[in-house]
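User: I'm putting together a teaching handout on how multi-component assemblies are represented. Below are the sequence lines for each component of a complex, exactly as they appear in our records. Could you produce the 3D structure of the whole assembly as structure tokens, so the students can see both representations side by side? Please keep the chain order the same as the input.
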Amino acid sequence: MRLILFLAIAILIFSCEKTSDGSSVNAASASSSGTGKGGSLARFTIVDNYLYVVDVFTLKVFNISNPLNAIEQTSINLGGGVETIFPYKDKLFIGSRDGMFIYSLANPAAPVKLGEARHVRSCDPVVANDSIAFVTLLGNQPCGPAQSGLYIYNITNLTSPTLIKTNLMNTPVGLGLADSILYVCQKSSGMSIFNVSNPAVPILRETITTQTFEDVIPYNNLLICYISTGLILYDITNRANPVQVALINN
Amino acid sequence: MNNYIKKYFFAKHHFLSFKRLTFKPNFMRIFYYLLGIMLLSSCWGKKPYYPEPIDFSKKVMGWKAVYGADSAYKKVKYFNTPRAMSQAGKIYVFGNTIFQNDVGKGIHLINNAISANAHRVAFIELGGNTDIAIKGNFLYANNYNDMVVIDITNINSPVEVKRFKNTFFTNDVLRPYIWQAPKDTGYYECPKYNNDSVIINWVKDSVQQFCKR
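Assistant: Of course. Below is the structure of the complete assembly, with chains in the same order as your input.
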């Protein structure tokens, strides 16, 4: 009886401490021939002859095969709180405050939802490769109460992504993947460099804290970083050891 | 008198008898008291949110939207000189050029032909802009609530070739587009969606207590 009471007390005491936890996914953008490359915070992305734009509630599909006469083709309701879009091969990864949605581009004019990973409310960019999606959740207001961190999903089965690792961090935002190295921006806490050759066990290699990092684009051997004051460029010929080459700020 | 006092106060069953004051600790009872206190205190510091009733008829100091004609503000303007960053925004890369958004103002062009010497070279003024994407010779961007297609065949002379008017009409009060809410906190005049004008600025004024940030 006393044991039960103690447990009850413990539960009651902690019930108000922990608001929630959760996971989410966020995407970065890729490039196909003739298109540029955006960061993981992007709301616009182009795959072949289509421009995909996420508004707060909708995924808008523009047919741009003839740019002079671009056509707004479809509008798909996503439910709200949509933040980012990341293309990978024939898939779109959409980060919303409520989850990560995976859309198939088998018919590029009319994307179809394949699967989703729901999480508690947060902000959430996504990057992905063939089998893994990396998502950062920023659990502070105004985004929502999720536990901030890096959430790693196995997406081998696209219809039901499974969370394989949660790495709690303070203020994760944009992220970028170059081979087996993952760059995670954390605002004033810097940019962390993880070896994710085993995605279930990300290994922190280094954290660069000289700037307030918001987002990154790995672009061949160049890492383009959006910082609070502008841009910083790193040579990532050695993926795990970025070497600063330029700072374009203020 | 003395006897009376003794009789009165030391009587075995009198309600003021000292015996009644003898304290016998009852651990179970203490335990329940503590349980009660813990129950009450476990939520201290986490006040439940009860919104205060708002008198909507009463105006307060806040931010009033200033509207500008679409014809004057929804357009693409190119400057062939670099300019300082006002509020750094999202990045995009295409060929040897890096594009960086200046939140709500436009796009900085950065020549990245030689990364060690990367530098800003020009600015495309595009009000309300936050996002871009490029394919071939065409740049797609938001211009307030419009989507524009800009021909960048000659990057020194971008030309608007197509415009989707009022295509971004949604407003998420938690994360509004840059032009949908003032930078500073407080009440603000909720955005109106007109066919011919758009919010270009916010000024201090008395406003109704609806939209808030």
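A couple of points students might notice: The first helix of chain B runs from residue 2 to 10. Chain B touches chain A through 53 residues (CB under 8 Å).
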